[in-house]
Amino acid sequence: MSPDPTGRQPARPPYRPATVAVTSGRPPHVPDNPLNEPLTMASTYVAGGDVEYGRYGNPTWSAFEQALGDLEGGRALAFSSGLAAVSTILDLVGKDATVVAPRHAYLGSIGQMADLEARGRMRVVLVDVTDTDAVVKASQAAALVWLESPTNPALEVADIPAVVTAAHAAGAYVVVDNTFATPLLQQPLEMDADIVVHSATKFIAGHSDVLLGALATRDDELYDVLKKRRDMVGATPGTLETWLALRGLRTLHVRLERAQANAHELVRRLGEHPAVGEVRYPGFGAIVAVVLAGGAMAADLLTRKTTLWVHATSLGGVESTFERRRRWKTEPATIPDGLVRMSVGIEDVDDLWDDLATALDDLTLP
Ligand SMILES: *Cc1c(COP(=O)(O)O)cnc(C)c1O
């Protein structure tokens, strides 16, 4: 919660997260100020100030960064995409250093690590994040421990505080991809993680109309290094995207509350359906995975038989979407062939269920 030279409203510490989401990053309450930070389209600024050029800063970015930073409890930076933020963080790792990461982390993050390893830039050790002893053991020789919790799409949960303690004792940094939980359900910086990273494309923006990434840290030195790298390589966000993401962030708590309630109810009903072999749900959030008893064929059929649920990749929008993850050739073979990842939206839960149940009933007919 750093002071902002523009006088932008910081969230006051006693405010609870819902109030922070609504109020943080707004222009100061002075007559005729707009309530919302305007969309500032500018590639350059009048010389002599702190910003100078459009790659180094933008008031619309700052408003979004203030709000997200306040929610995560650190200083935030916006990026052109989640993977641009991931790449900027991985670039900090020294040559030949070891990075520990979850076997089932987001494919794009694992893909970047594999690419860097293939080019001799780092060593990567993939672990089962639910096996805390294994993660702790691997982190002894690591420079960076990458966590994602819950993981995409296996929905495994890591013991973040235990890993942070062990990793720090071994001199390693800890990064947590907080895309699935959002800062409303999990605050990794509060658990002493060094950096939290987001695909703001997902729940934060929340309307399936934006690609955006972000990170947050409490470490001023890390913040400076990461900002310098972002600005240097131009992994900077679009202004309109940042504005839309901030607009989405204002309702994150309300959207998540409804989506999570829908998810709880669907998990209960799905667990009783004979076409469903297994339901995976960490107990919080709005992402559910089901493994269909009929395997890949049943999963493909399901994604084609619904009318309300949309067959699409990505997640975290107001509308419910789902996909069979192994349709991607790059998905690890350890993800079941018949697994369908479901991003539960904010529609009426009975409509969501009726649509699913009709398609699932078709799969179980003799
Ligand atoms: C989508 C996603 C990313 C990548 O973000 P983009 O905005 O698509 O670049 C990273 N991590 C997780 C967990 C994701 O779901």
Explain the overall architecture.
The chain has 366 residues and is an alpha/beta fold. The protein has 2 domains: 17-249, Type I PLP-dependent aspartate aminotransferase-like (Major domain) (Aspartate Aminotransferase, domain 2, 3-Layer(aba) Sandwich), CATH 3.40.640; 253-364, Aspartate Aminotransferase, domain 1, CATH 3.90.1150.10. Helices cover 37% and strands 16% of the residues. It is built from 12 helices and 12 strands. The chain has helices spanning 17-23, 59-72, 82-90, 107-118, 132-139, 160-169, 182-185, 220-233, 239-249, 252-271, 295-305, 349-364, and strands at residues 75-79, 97-102, 122-127, 144-148, 173-177, 195-199, 213-217, 276-280, 287-292, 310-311, 321-324, 339-343. The strands form 2 sheets. A 7-stranded mixed β-sheet has the order 1-7-6-5-4-2-3, sandwiched between helices. A 5-stranded mixed β-sheet has the order 8-9-12-11-10, covered by helices on one side. Helix 1 (17-23) packs antiparallel against helix 2, helix 2 runs parallel beside helix 9 (239-249) and helix 10 (252-271) packs parallel to helix 12. The model has no long low-confidence stretch (mean pLDDT 95). Pyridoxal-5'-phosphate is lined by residues 81-83, 106, 108-109, 148, 152, 177, 179, 199, 201-202, 211, 213. The site of pyridoxal-5'-phosphate has 15 residues, from helix 3 and helix 4.
